[in-house]
Amino acid sequence: MGIQEGTLLFEPSEAQIENSHITSYRTWLQEYKQIQTNDYHTLWKWSVEDLDTFWESIWEYFNVQSHQPYQNVRSGNQIIGTKWFPEATINYTEHVFRNKSLSTPAIIHTSENREQQEVTWEKLYQDTAALQKTLKKQGIQKGDRVACYAPNIYETVVAFLATASLGAIWSSASPDFGTQSVMERFQQIEPKAMITVDGYSYNGKKYNRLDVVKALQAALPSLKTTIAIPYLNKQADFSDCIHPISWHEATTCEEKLEMSYTPVAFNDPLWILYSSGTTGKPKPIVHSQGGILLEHLKAIHLHLDLGPGSRFFWFTTTGWMMWNFLVGGLLTGSSIILYDGSPAYPDKQVLWRLAEQTKMNVFGTSASFITTCMNENISPKNDFDLSHLKNISSTGSPLSPEGFAWCYSHLKNDIWVSSVSGGTDVCTAFLLGSPTQPVYAGEIQCAGLGAKIESFDEDGNSIIDEIGELVLTAPFPSMPIYFWNDESGLRMYHSYFDTFPGVWCHGDYIKLTKRNTTVIYGRSDATINRGGVRIGTSEIYRVTDEVTAVKDSLIVDLPRENGDSITALFVVLKDEEKLTDTIEQEIKQQLRTHCSPRHVPTHIYEVRELPQTLNGKKVEIPVKKILMGQDPTTVMNKGSLINPESLDYFIELAKRI
Fold this sequence. Notes:
Helix content: 25-40%
Number of strands: 35
Strand content: 15-25%
Shape: globular
Number of helices: 21
Structural class: alpha/beta
CATH topology of the largest domain: Rossmann fold
Low-confidence stretches: none
Radius of gyration: 24 Å
Strand order of the largest sheet: 6-5-18-17-19-20-21
């Protein structure tokens, strides 16, 4: 706890600012649009006040190709129902392969059971063209859904690009998802084709998934064909699958192929992502080809400063939106780096070793990974050559000031730390980094260009330097075009627009500072309310992470009829540790000292493990509802958890309290 939130940690040099892509964009704006911006904030302010000109400039700057010209940047001014570039027809994959003449690798990939390989743009193009041809033969066409049950491997990227090239709709689930979780996703969208592996490896252990694949296919009567990838076992038997075609057969062609691209409307679907599904069936969130194309070009090129020759990595699975974001790196001509496996196998340095071997420029990860490295006293700069690494990006949960400081102490003293925040809902981050801005401990550098982010109090007033709800008060291209099978639009409306009519309420607890940085304090529906003061859960976790005996923690606030509340802190302790009075008093004293007396829990419980979603996030609200006596089957979908058995403790505790 030796660093305060807001401590200045890094300032980019004049050369870094001058050579950044965002500076090139500002220069282009001045030369071709006569738009003068003095710094990042004036650029952002213009981008949200003149949305049409800004997004049209992004279209022109990146030379977006339309098979039919657009006439209007958007239809209507309302945040709900806005259509962007409504007359345009485009294709996402076509924009990826504008880069196929590059001499740098398109993809670098490795996994627990595969050696590291580099793939040229030409090979990626030919494999995608061959798979496109196979999918066409199987009758896959515009609007059909293609479901993928495969990990973060080369074949999955090929499969996505081939799907999108046809105007078909992509949807993926990671093979570490349980049978029920995948069924609940894919049954909603009725896929026509399925791409699958036979299994996967994690933490040195092999998991055969052929029985799961068989069960999935039996539950999907819409399926007409299966593309089978023998990933775990080269001799895997896919004979029980519906019309199986081996990956080798599907992507082998004796002659050079030329791809064709099916033009689709700018607002037609590209893919279907899913909410975590913690309290029911996952919401199938549909994003448009054009909205994702524009947003990922902007976010990855301008905010992450990536372009041809760059090397871009994010530790992710195909069940998290960051996989889709990572693939977007191909749009900028970057080489993307794929890793399938555990971040702790064969040792806890595996990803830092990968950073050295691949000469990684941007290392994307989760805040929890950085916290783990910090708690394990890992110091990568002592063991690896990180000279090529210029940025470490973090998302998934707020990165603590100590996490920021660890990056400067144990990676590089000139590293650019970029904490970002967004979500599956928009498949990007609203709050991003900028290579031209300073880095302050615990703070996100800026709101993304074109994203009109504000913080609202309970009455819907915009506030600065106070904690409020993260809202978006103007349309944004990568908002969902709809939820699948939500013809009335009510499910989507209730998900985002109930709290403040006509305003997107994201569900995060945020502070916008006077210097235009932001701080995320956790989910707003999970905040602690003690004596009328709202406390973000991330403030609690920041302190408990520093207690030597504590491995992980989760806190919930349980209101009582008398207006008081029980604040219960659940802790997972490190090996051999037991919750003693001494440890309990240390936790309380640290919270009292570094936060306030209001942050001190009324009760502390030791648990063996905490429930986590398939994306590794804590599930505070379902735990709270269970402890308040609600039926566990209605408040928590166990299939959305990595460790469903972890709920048993809380169900039993609810009976006692």
